[in-house]
Amino acid sequence: MSTRNVWASISLAGVMLAGWSAMPAAHAQQATSGRRTTADTPLPDVTVDAPRQRQVAGRTSSAGQAAKRMLRPAARRAAAPAQAAAQPTPSSAGSAATPLNGDATPAIGSRLGLTAREVPAAVEVIGAETLREQGYHTTVDAVKGATGVSAGDAPNDVGFAMRGFQGNQVNVLYNGINIGPTGFTALTMETFNLDRVEFLKGPSSLSSGQGAVGGTINFVTKTPHTGPVQNEAFVGFDQRGTFRSGFGSGGSTTVPGLDYRFDISRTKEVGFIDDTEFKNVHVSGQLNYRLSDSFKTFVAAEFKDYKAKPYEGTPLVPAADSGTNATAGIVSGSKISAYNSSTLDAVTIDRRTLSTNYNVIDGHKTIKESWVRSGFEWDLNNAVTLRSQIYNYNASRDWYNNEIAAYNSLTKQVDRERFFVHHNHNIVGNITDVTWNGRIFGLDNRLVGSIESSHTDFTRPGAANFPGEPVPLVGFDRGTYGDLRTQLQTATIDSVALNIEDKLKLTDSFALIGGLRYNPFTLDRSWIRNGAERPGFPYSKSWQPLTGRIGYTWEALPGTTFYSQYATATDISADSIFILSPTQNLTLSDSRSYETGVKQLLWNGRAEWTFSAFDIERNNVYSAQAGQQLNLAGKVKSQGIEIAAAVRPTPESKLWGNVAYVRARYADYDLADGSRSFSGNTPPNIPAVIINGGASYRFPNPGWWPVELGFSVRHVGDRWSTDANTVKLLAYTTADLFAFVDLPKVPLFATATSTRLAFRVRNVTDKRYAAWSDPFYPDQIFLGAPRTYEVEASFKF
């Protein structure tokens, strides 16, 4: 079937499904998309808390009042150049949330200050309360709870996949700021310091710049609120020796107009692989100051200190060599080693290696990050708002490990090889935008124009030699790194982006929404080895990409919104701007997406569901291969659907679930030597199906303390480990159980207004599975975490 026919079928299916869904909406008894009275919403949120709430005012004819009639930017996006000095507390926002947070105003969806339901794209928000309830301790945990998003379980290997794309085709932002390719900038964090995690699916360069092909993930830290000081703390353990703790405080100070927020968390997570762990300290704080009702300013700072003894993967082993130790249900297929060229035939994971660490004794990964941000927001009049933010980001990263563990069927041993690299990464930037609310030809209109500028300095001392040796499959001396010699790579990036977005309301229920981004940037690179520049270096290259989005939203019935959009994105074709070689095609990959769907709030705001269908194509693609090499892979096509739903049938019960289906494949992917074609193959780490779901029940009168019991289930379909599609990571299903006990005030916790004890069992069936693969290291895979028991106590006071 042609792409055009596929898209036509998907669009028709979406319209039919949306039309069917509109029928119950007509009987939704006052369920609207942003206006709900207390009587309409007797129940709190089902799954997530809303970070912000939409505000709607009355209708007049003046341009100033027209600004109030439309969605005002009072719910400030964290990605905006400045954050609002006054924001609702997580608890107050959470109490007004809809089941899927459709009334939240995510920073990532648009600069127009639209709610998730008003954005013509699939947008998800996971709030702080859900992070707490679902036990999403790390950012990797949180990401896997979203619709159709997959990731590895190992905290040191941060890789995400979304809508048929992975790695650097999924942008990761911090408070709306893009700091570079996900492959090396994404850092596993404790979620305690976060207010929410936002997801925008599909090409989204308009919102987040280069690289957003599969989508964008935005981590938003907690910000101050105006009101009494609120404190919170937690401490948790698991049976492997993991320890987590955190403390946070925020509210108004004795200085009129000055609000604060401070959070600190500390984690020591002990891995399920021998002698692996990571430690993370995260400190964040912000001050908001209201000089007047129309002028607000803020200053924010963060620091992260990450230290890990990493897990670098488990080798694929011939089933014949493992014998009775061969495992079933983890991997299947056959391969020839990409490292030593030995024939492995049918492969397995040897049972004796399920917890074996092939890294050297002195292997480590360390990262130190710091952020400083400051800005203001100024309502010049009722129709115009000016915002500006400056920021500085600095990171020092160090990898010092044995990263290759490739089984050799000739020697019956595991060939190892070391890798070292260090990063000094510094970014200075500014984002300034102006929002105008008015009328065009008598129609309500909102226009946002912005300019972004940034300067990046990147220094990369890396290994010039790669020591290694063979070791037995089991029972070996792990040894040390050994001799290290380095070479120096540098990159400087100067970027400017001009953005314009507009929302034109043709009727009260139908709006056109679009935008353009013009983003010229220049890369200067050097590479020095043994005191001399390598051939082709230094070099300089400039690009001038233009991307955008055009779409509509139609609230056909109260609470039921149809949408469609066309969006584009660009990114560096060769995986990473910092790997790009002058001998490669120095052009950008370009992507386009068609998407249609429906979003519905019904049953007096107690139920909410969304449906989206998409068709994405990315051209001029390079694909990762063994040995840090890249192949020209032509194009990638991806089509699929996503459905998410949540409901609270009774005040005591919650039900939620999501399912995603994607068909992703290469096109025009022929190896340069003509030996093989990978056209029609699926990119690595892309499952056809991902399903998440869960339920909980809170006993209304247990006779002693309030108790809540629940479970969640996750199913991830088959995935391939490399472009060749010869080794399959088999589908798996895991289930978690949890119980909450909310304690009344007792002498031990006399000052706490809320005390909760949480008990959790992860992967209750102890399923062994393959979680992720790294195409740069195709002879090994990353295993998923086994059964884990946890206990946690949290307090609010």
How would you portray this structure in words?
It is a single chain. This protein is mainly beta and 797 residues long. It has a 22-stranded antiparallel barrel. A five-stranded mixed β-sheet has the order 1-7-8-5-6. It is built from eight helices and 42 strands. Helices cover 8% and strands 51% of the residues. The N and C termini lie far apart (60 Å). It has one domain: TonB-dependent receptor, beta-barrel domain (Maltoporin, Chain A). It is found in: Cell outer membrane. Residues 1-28 form the signal peptide. It is a multi-pass membrane protein. Residues 339-764 form the TonB-dependent receptor-like beta-barrel domain. Residues 76-99 have a biased composition (Low complexity).
Any descriptors?
797 residues; iron transport; cell outer membrane; 22-stranded antiparallel barrel; Maltoporin, Chain A; membrane; Beta-barrel_TonB; 42 strands; TonB-dependent receptor; single chain; 5-stranded mixed β-sheet; disordered N terminus; mainly beta
